[in-house]
Amino acid sequence: MQVALDDYVWAAGIATDLVNTAPEVWHGEDKLPDLASLAAFADLHSLPVRARPGDPRAVHRLRATVRDLIDHPEQARLIAGASALTSPTGGITLDTSSDRRRWTVSLRPGATVTDTLSLICGIGILGVVQTLGAERFRACGAPTCRGAFIDTTRPGRRRYCMPGLCGNRVNVANHRARQAAAHE
């Protein structure tokens, strides 16, 4: 598998999705509890690696590492941590197979799903730090959510880890509060 160094938005999205599978985000329910759920996560994100029996525990450790980086977004710490995440690479190459030349990082043969996710998360974090800045790493703005995310939107105003879920819940709560106040 090759990951383009300039595809940090995609990579940061996967990092965000990974950290938001944690039980603290879902009120005690781990969204990656076993091999089948990890395989489904890899399939959902089109990762061409198969999950193996020891992978869920390793991915949980990776998820905690990535979450810790998002929660403590000091630039030097993000760079050091994300650089460590990219260690399972097989080498950096210039891909000239298309009209657009891009630098890519390849995984070494036999890489695990954890290696793949580690590389992707590292590239996402490094790309966002370089291009958008460390202030793009945030906790979810919903009062009942403990999620975190990497904001890759152009204006940089994203407030929720899962806008369709957390943002919608906040909007519904605000609407109900306005309706209740209007009926008093």
Quick description:
This protein is mostly helical and 184 residues long. Helix content is 48%, strand content 12%.
Describe the structure.
The protein is mainly alpha-helical and 184 residues long. 48% of the residues lie in helices and 12% in strands. The protein contains six helices and five strands. The strands form two sheets. A three-stranded antiparallel beta sheet has the order 1-3-2, covered by helices on one side. Strand 2 (89-95) and strand 3 form a beta hairpin. It is globular, with a radius of gyration of 18 Å. The mean pLDDT is 90.
- Return the string of H and E elements: EHHHHEEHEEH
> What is the mean pLDDT?
90
- The helix content, as a percent range, equals 40-55%
Rg calc: 18 Å
* Low-pLDDT regions: none
First CA to last CA: what distance?
Answer: 60 Å
Structural class: mainly alpha
- Characterize the main sheet: 3 strands, antiparallel
Q: Strand fraction band? A: 5-15%
Number of helices: 6
Tally of DSSP β-strands:
5
Strand order of the largest sheet: 1-3-2
Give the oligomeric state of the chains in this entry, treating copies of one chain as homo and distinct chains as hetero: single chain
Shape: globular
Notable characteristics:
single chain, 184 residues, mainly alpha, 3-stranded antiparallel β-sheet, two-stranded antiparallel ribbon, 6 helices
Q: Could you give the topology of this structure?
A:
Layout: E1 2-4, H1 8-19, H2 35-44, H3 55-71, H4 75-85, E2 89-95, E3 102-107, H5 113-131, E4 137-139, E5 148-150, H6 163-182
Antiparallel strand pairs: 1-3, 2-3, 4-5
Helix pairs in contact: 1-5, 3-4, 3-5, 4-5
